[in-house]
Write a structure and sequence with these properties.
By secondary structure, this protein is an alpha+beta fold. The chain is built from 2 helices and 6 strands; from the N terminus they run βββαβββα.
Amino acid sequence: QRCADAATGLDETGDWVCECYAPSTETAVGAAVHMCTHDECAAGGAGAGVCEAAGQRCEDAHQLTQGNWECVCALAPAVRGAAGPAACPVDECADAANALVCQRAGQACVDDGAT
């Protein structure tokens, strides 16, 4: 965090301000910030672009610790990747062309081994 005192007159005491470095937004007047959080999934955070590029959601449940963000699969939220993309299951029957192959044969497409 950084602290500054914009008003330095003798009668202007206790008004100095401390603020956490971006992307944290916590501030304190006349004291240090107790704890600066760091959401690594916020814009500009370590995980934001990584998860988005993989088509996944980024979660940072412990914002007081760095390096613990996770990418979460959209269709299988229990599947997570620690500080990187998750190995999300792929349901081949979700592809309309594959489902149509089965449908034309009078069958239902079921991908039991979605990986």
